[in-house]
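YM 10:42: Tryptophan--tRNA ligase sequence, as discussed on the call
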Amino acid sequence: MTTLAPTAPAAPSVDALGTAAARTRSAVLEQQIREAPGRFRVLTGDRPTGRLHLGHYFGTLHNRVRLQNLGVDLFVIIADYQVLTDRDVADHLTEHVEELVLDHLAIGVDPERSTVFTHSAVPALNQLLLPFLSLVSVAELNRNPTVKDEIAHSRQSAVSGLMFTYPVHQAADILFCKANLVPVGQDQLPHLEITRTVARRFNDRYGNGTPVFPEPDALLSDAPLLLGTDGTKMSKSRGNAISLAADADETARLIKGAKTDSERHIAYDPAGRPEVASLLLLAALCQGRTPEEVAAGIGSAGAAALKRTVTESVNEYLAPIRARRAEYARDRAYLRGILREGNERARAVADETLSEVRTAMRNHY
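YM 10:58: structure's back
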């Protein structure tokens, strides 16, 4: 009788290995940030396509404030040009840009310590795109899984060149200010790898032994995944999100209509009861407790009690943020002033970087 050799365990995928390495590196980076925050410059930001919501807040926004308060140099880009990656026109752009500024001020981003600016207002940043595009191949862009996913979910009838080159645009956004740290989710790691590739190839081709750009590190966080009120991914475009600008009544209405299940006993079971688990997680984040502790407090009181608990927790947590937002919203001239100052600061940095690039490429005439 033939004896079969034991089956070797499957090797982890390249994606799994990359994510594991990024998590290990992120732990090291967190320690270095605490020890010497001044060594780091962070580039992060959003596309102005609507108001930011609780998924954004607990996923990324509160981390921006944390890094700022630790002493990291924070650049926040409002990527208005990139609105056109997956849509034909940029509707209500001015309003959406101001709303993003309001959201950042309300959560604690300090324009005296951080730079908030718009993509379109920094011409030198966009001039980096041409030399950067020459450093990557069409095949490399084609293989990018994040681009594939974004194309699959695109709102456009045909894929634009802007969508295809989106990772290189992001490379320009990051490298213009020589950011060496980029907070990202796991799905954004392929984009950041393109940025690292661009930086490395530019340095090899034009650096003459002196690197022009850093190869930025990913800072992965254990950002919680909050579902929308319909049980799917929380998204501005799906109308299933609780925005930071929502008032207490609107929040109560949205949570009241949130999807749950028929089981009366409330328990935290992300795999088996994802909608209930997401609501418990939201309440827990607002209360500073674990989802299991929140669930234990509700017990067999049912979905109505769960929704009351979530509503009270969210409204209490957001009350000071909403108050600050309302105060800032009364002075739109102040918002525009913040953008003017941030744009001027970003332009000065970009102009200096572009001058270095032209010198390295020997086209500084």
